Amino acid sequence: MNIPSTFFSAALLAIGVSLIPAMQANGRPLMEPLGDNIADRGSAFYRFSIKTFSSADGLRHYKVWLGVPKQTPPPKGFPVLFMLDGNAAMARLSEDRLKQLADNRPPMLVAVGYDTRLPFDVRARALDYTPPGGQPGDPGQERYPGGGSHAFRNLLLNQIIPWTEKQAPGDPQRRALWGHSYGGLFVLDTLYHASGFTHYFSAAPSLSWRHQRIVELAQQVPPGALNGKTLYLIEGDGQSDRGKERNAAQIGKAHRTLIARLQKSGVRLHQIRYPGQTHGELLPSSLDATLNIISGAE
Question: Which residues constitute the signal peptide according to the record (predicted)?
Answer without folding.
Answer: none
